[in-house]
Design a protein that fits this description.
single chain, alpha/beta, six-stranded parallel beta sheet
């Protein structure tokens, strides 16, 4: 059974502050290139911005933050960059988990983790266990994650669990098997770096999410830039299939 309602079946509660923010952190390499630095320098700076984003969410009352760190397609990048990204992931887990724990942040990592080295997998398990009881903020890192992979793994697990219901499955049946089953659907999706696409991120969950695209590169996306995204969100009319008149109580004739 799903823990949260679906925006395509039920009308979600709408608040001034989004409960769940999902982010594609794009532009690290371009940030470094503009400064004549190696691409990895941009990724290192990007990790620092994660700390600022976590602080901003804690201060504003955002309950869930999901960050797209490494897609299933990012393995196509140069091997040297992939290796450095994996090393940076290990280093971040070694250095940041205790800080997250002290601030009441629960850390989860979603994606196909089987492709990662044993040491990284062990660090992920340890981090999740250490922070499992925290409730101030749920921080989810999507690593070796793809939206299509997520849907397919959920379908396969559902089929194994309920073979007798084949041909009769519903949205509600699949939702408990999706990677983000523990969180409500994102209210706000942010992509930095100027690109305006979702790049195989949370394909199922973004059905009625508000999108915010910004040319600001991720290492420059500070608390002030986050505030602009929140302000934009607060100016949206979230209808979920209804008319504006239904929201205001007026006639839609």
């Amino acid at each position: 059974m799903a823990l949260f309602s679906s925006s395509t079946r039920d009308l979600p509660q709408v608040a001034a502050v989004p409960a769940h923010v999902a982010v594609i952190m794009d532009g690290n390499g371009r940030w470094a290139k503009k400064r004549f630095l190696p691409r990895v320098a941009g990724h290192v700076k990007g990790v620092e911005l994660v700390r600022e984003m976590v602080r901003a969410c804690l201060e504003r009352g955002v309950r869930y933050l999901t960050l797209f760190a490494f897609s299933s397609e990012n393995w196509r990048r140069p091997q040297e960059e992939v290796t450095l990204l994996m090393q940076l992931f290990v280093k971040a887990l070694e250095q940041e988990v205790e800080k997250l724990h002290r601030n009441g942040v629960r850390l989860r990592v979603i994606g196909d983790l089987s492709r990662f080295e044993p040491r990284l997998q062990a660090l992920i398990r340890q981090a999740e266990e250490t922070t499992a009881g925290n409730t101030s903020l749920d921080l989810t890192i999507a690593a070796n994650y793809g939206g299509r992979w997520d849907i397919m793994q959920a379908v396969n697990r559902m089929a194994l669990a309920h073979p007798d219901q084949a041909g009769q499955w519903t949205e509600a049946d699949i939702e408990p098997y999706l990677s983000m089953h523990f969180a409500p659907e994102p209210d706000l999706f942010i992509r930095t770096g100027g690109e305006e696409r979702i790049s195989n991120f949370l394909l199922w969950q973004l059905a009625y999410t508000e999108f915010y695209f910004t040319p600001t590169l991720w290492p420059d996306f500070d608390a002030a830039e986050f505030g602009k995204a929140i302000t934009s969100y607060q100016q949206r009319e979230r209808r979920f299939g209804r008319t504006s008149e239904q929201l205001t109580g007026g006639s839609d004739a």
